[in-house]
Amino acid sequence: MASNPTCDLLITHGTLVQVREDVTAPVKGADMASLPVLPGAYLSITQGRISDYGPMDRLPRNLRAQQTLSAKGRFVFPSFVDSHTHLVFDQYREDEFVMKIKGATYTEIAARGGGILSSARQVQKLSEDELLERTLPRAREIIRTGTGVVEIKSGYGLTTRDELKMLRVARRIGIETPLKVKTTFLGAHAVPPGMQKADYMNLLIREMIPAVAEEKLADYIDVFCEAGFFTPDETIQLAEAGKQYGLQPRLHANQLGRSGGVQAGVKTAALSVDHLEHLGDEEITLLKKSATMPTALPGAAFFLRLPQAPGRQIIDAGLPLAIASDFNPGSCPTGNMPLIIALACIQMKITPEEAINAATVNTAFSLQLSHEYGSIARGRVASLFITQPIPSVAYIPYAFGYNPVDTVILNGKVIPAG
Questions:
Q1: How many domains does the chain have?
Q2: I need a surface site. Which of 138, 139, 319, 400 has the fewest CB within 10 A?
Q3: Is the dihedral of CA 326, 330, 336, 340 positive or negative?
């Protein structure tokens, strides 16, 4: 006689959101308005993976579960995939927040030694263990608001030693916590004080990139392509140098102006171009001819009082859209993805369904993880969250500032609250 089937964790009576068995491409254009939902369902987890799901009336009667959770009146989501953060840093920069309120611009603060250079001075003073200690609470914070996958950039080191230190800490976040972490080398975030840009470019290409690759510390390379930082030609040079060492580009583009960053991203076959607060028809046409993911960071635009990326226009043009937090101490001091989704809906005029697609399946695709994360399907990693009792998916962006997450499950294990 066959033994009864077993699972480690069984979720019952929930509404499953983002049920997609086959994800081979990002969701784009009009398809972004569709969010596959399965009400009155069960979901079973075995050895950290989704082993089965379906309507409650198809739940095998003889299934034995080590643990059972009822999700009646609740929604079960795949974890958010936050594809753009600067999670590793020392201190927040609330003093600059006050300067902004009084009228100082991002560029003016940077010119006074604030901004990126301020965070770099702080990071350079810390040991690797101290920097990890500062970062871990932020990692736990984003877990509590539903994030299960996070991209973490360097860029507050600006020396070989300190950039490597940041990337080591980012890798350790993926060991010390149940988060899935992808890392990005962003040595080209700013030019260190007292150094000529040509000399720093030489250091990046000849020393930093090879050192990062030798230790296998990064999956990707990023460049801050903006006026006063790195030009499109410099961005292309650095991105191509990274590609020679297996680091695929993901670029900061068009945050402070039409910087040419989108053009550089398309030319270097970047996986994504991020920010896009200043985007014209030319850039949208280029993106339509590419496989590069347009990624909006609505929290940064909100915090800096910049125009929001034209998310509605991007989707209406038939493109995919991803949204991420940009969690960092200067321009978006939060990694709260439900809040980021709310900002996207309210200020970019995209629907809740479009925003959730943008923060799950499309961000997973841009991080080359859509086969394991960002949707509910058999065999995928069981990184999920169960909401509080809420009436609809739309309630998440509607009730902005409210944490809809009740229970977090990462790699098949329930994460204790707190």
A1: 2
A2: 400
A3: negative
